[in-house]
Amino acid sequence: MSIDALPMLSEQSPGIAVSRRSPLSVLPALVRDPLQALPPEVYREPLVYSRVANRQRVFLLKPAFIQETLVRNADALSKGEDVRRALGPALGQGLLTADGAHWRWQRQSVVPAFRHEKLVGLLPAMISAAERTRDRWLAAGSGAPIRIAHEMMRTTFDIIVETMMSGPGGIDVVRVERGITDYLKPTGWIFALSILNAPDWVPYPGRGRARAAMRYLRSAITGMISERRRSGEARDDLVALLLAAADHETGRMMTDEEIADNLLTFITAGHETTALGLAWTLLLLAHHPEHEARVLSEIDAVTAGGPVRSEHISELIYTRQVFSEAMRLYPPAPIITRTATRAFPLDRFMVPERAVIVVPIHAVHHHAAIWEQPERFDPERFAPEQARARHRYAYMPFGAGPRICIGSAFAQMEAIAILAVLLKAVRLLPKSSTMPAPVMKVTLRPTADAEMLVETRS
Ligand code: HEM
Predict the structure, then answer these.
(1) pLDDT band at residue 209 using 50, 70 and 90 as cut-offs
(2) Distance 332 CA to ligand 1 centre (A)
């Protein structure tokens, strides 16, 4: 059938799962936790259609549909209203939030910072940051309680500012972490107001704190950029790439505001996600000692009793499988959304212009038709043979298509380095007998920052 003859997707479309919940039931759930507001059908159907407050939403679960949309029809999609409202006030028009030519230029400008050779050169800085965390824990003594997500955020923040900005340059790490948490806390309200088409000025609880947090982050970064321009010091980092970036069509350079948008994007997108992936990994290992023992014996065999070094990271195959499986169960970015800027074909239908496309990565990763016993923690799913047998878009913690995470290789190297350094020196014990429940605040966090006990390994 030619594209022109395809019918528009709607609640009348044959063979389509339709979610018919009222705004009254969806909106409060959205405010509490957008994951709880997903139609339950997303965990078993290939595609779900819903219309809430006149907004059409198409939830994609089947990997082939995700590929057809995010990869083949990427030019029919924009980041859309939810992303603009939730992240725009903080990240402006940086790489994560921009669309079209402005996005393309920024992506091309920063690609050199993420080439493989460049990333390998960053490994010593990643290992050193992990060693500082380890030493802090060892100094606190055996039995000391730690808040695991907070500890991982300190470590990955240390790494992102060291590797991308050549150091914190006076930025207050604790204030940044609190600022990001304050900023993300009320985002459920923003999604709910966006569905209702409420204007941007409508107040919501937590907005004042979120705005104050954003002002601190931006002023700290702007100060650092002015200082770099003033000193003219040559450095080989992301700031230097952004200061030198010129649009190859117009020759235009980035303004300080555009550079700040991107640095804020890299600082936030580049440390919180990895930290959460690590926190969930360490919690899972603590609850599954048999897998922890296998990770430890791999680290011991690869490092042969010496300290963790750069060349060890690519050899820690099982450790990497564990991290992948943790991100399957707890994807740090659990939902991504787009808006259709024009109608486009999908399967037997046309997706209408202005429909919101939702890819609930969390539901894809727990889907009954894709995974056997989806709730079971089983790192063997990522052994090469099993991974090869799956559809490429059955697992997508870093997204898919041209907007795929630019930092995915960075994040994986960093995570393995941190796990190797920490697990070699300490054993982390869970304080509770059950895994903490996840809650989505743009990223997927443990409900209350889970406490763990540090025990020195003899
Ligand atoms: C485990 C860690 C990470 C996870 C799970 C993750 C996840 C994601 C996902 C799902 C997207 C796509 C969003 C969408 O399609 O709407 C994304 C985009 C992005 N990520 Fe990551 N990320 C991680 C680490 C990082 C790191 C370490 C950096 C930087 C050093 C980074 C920088 C970015 C940027 C700049 C984008 C926007 C790319 C674009 O639109 O061109 N991320 N990330």
Answers:
(1) confident
(2) 10
